[in-house]
UniProtKB/TrEMBL annotation:
<protein>
    <submittedName>
        <fullName>8-oxo-dGTP pyrophosphatase MutT (NUDIX family)</fullName>
    </submittedName>
</protein>
<keyword id="KW-0378">Hydrolase</keyword>
<dbReference type="Pfam" id="PF00293">
    <property type="entry name" value="NUDIX"/>
</dbReference>
<dbReference type="GO" id="GO:0016787">
    <property type="term" value="F:hydrolase activity"/>
</dbReference>
<dbReference type="InterPro" id="IPR015797">
    <property type="entry name" value="NUDIX_hydrolase-like_dom_sf"/>
</dbReference>
<dbReference type="InterPro" id="IPR020084">
    <property type="entry name" value="NUDIX_hydrolase_CS"/>
</dbReference>
<feature type="domain" description="Nudix hydrolase">
    <location>
        <begin position="1"/>
        <end position="128"/>
    </location>
</feature>
<dbReference type="InterPro" id="IPR000086">
    <property type="entry name" value="NUDIX_hydrolase_dom"/>
</dbReference>
Length: 133
């Protein structure tokens, strides 16, 4: 059985583009978020990861689940599967790269090839719903 990598991601769409982040030392962009630690809930993981990566505070009362996606991890040997639970939420602060993140970018659907397979599934849904240009 394949290893399951359980992640939570923050979906931030503005003007038809989605916020993506490139970690230090990597060439691929990801939807911001990360792996659960211990018995953290989705919401706890989301708040912690986004503060660590983007230095903003999400408002937990505005967090809304928008979908959960699974796909084979392209960068993990042995066919691991990534599960990404996606949430929208309002935030306070200024989006800024942290020690973990090298670059932020606002992607349109045309940038879909620059993100991993699980993120591409989210891109497809956002495009189909008219939220992503």
């Amino acid at each position: 059985m394949a290893v399951l990598i359980d992640t939570v991601a923050w979906v931030r769409v503005q003007d038809g583009r989605i916020l993506c982040a490139r970690p230090r030392g990597k060439s691929i962009f990801y939807i911001p978020g990360g792996k659960r630690e211990g018995a953290e809930s989705d919401r706890e993981t989301l708040l912690r990861e986004i503060e660590e990566e983007l230095t903003v505070l999400l408002d937990p009362d505005t967090a809304v689940h928008v979908g959960t996606y699974e796909a084979v991890a392209s960068d993990v040997p042995g066919g691991a599967v990534v599960r990404m639970s996606c949430y929208t939420a309002d935030y306070a602060g200024t989006l800024t790269v942290s020690s973990e993140i090298e670059e932020l970018a606002w992607f349109s659907y045309a940038d879909r090839p620059l993100v991993p397979p699980v993120d591409q599934l989210l891109f497809d849904d956002l495009k189909a719903s008219g939220r992503l240009v």
